[in-house]
UniProtKB/TrEMBL annotation:
Keyword Metal-binding attributed: yes
Protein name according to UniProt: SoxAX cytochrome complex subunit A
Organism: Ferrovum myxofaciens
Signal peptide feature range: 1-24
Gene3D superfamilies, sorted: Cytochrome c-like domain (1.10.760.10)
InterPro entries linked: Cyt_c-like_dom, Cyt_c-like_dom_sf
UniProt keyword list: Heme, Iron, Metal-binding, Oxidoreductase, Signal
EC number(s) stated in the UniProt entry for this protein: 1.8.2.-
Residue span(s) of domain Cytochrome c: 33-132
Amino acid sequence: MTGRTNIKGLLGLVLGSWMVVAQGAGLDPELDKVAQQGKDLFSHATFDGNGAFCESCHRNGGVGPGRRPDGQAIPSLTNAAAIFPRYKAKAGRVFTLQDQIRGCVGMALQGKAPAYGSDELTALTVYVTSLAQGKPLDMGGKPQ
């Protein structure tokens, strides 16, 4: 077994355990509050862009299949947090969920991406992560 496999297995065990605990106990009220803020941003914020918002493409709060502005079908976000980080060959680097969110805001919404460490990016990340509650970790996996 390689060091990478051991780390991935250990990370899966730790995150899998966290998901079971979080599912059984429900979200902490403060964490739930931030997730709700993220859902509101997801549904209504244009980020000073082209007038669209996350839900313009990721329909039904991100839980159903969506469509890009060019009409191409896109999968739901229900396992997005479980498949990041991911290596993107076109970019030649590893992308995190926050990188992906910022990229969507900047490109699809043509808006000003929330800064790393900002309340907005944190809230969006918490919301998208909440959609993957209970999903198995599959770093580098395929969207569903």
